[in-house]
Amino acid sequence: QVQLVESGGGSVQAGGSLRLSCAVSAYADNRNCMGWYRRAPGKEREDVSAFYTSDGRTYYADSVKGRFTISQDSAKNTVYLQMNSLKPEDTAMYYCASAVCAGSRPQFSVFLSWGQGTQVTVSS
Question: How far is CA 22 from CA 41, 52, 111, 124, in A?
Answer without folding.
Answer: 22, 16, 15, 27
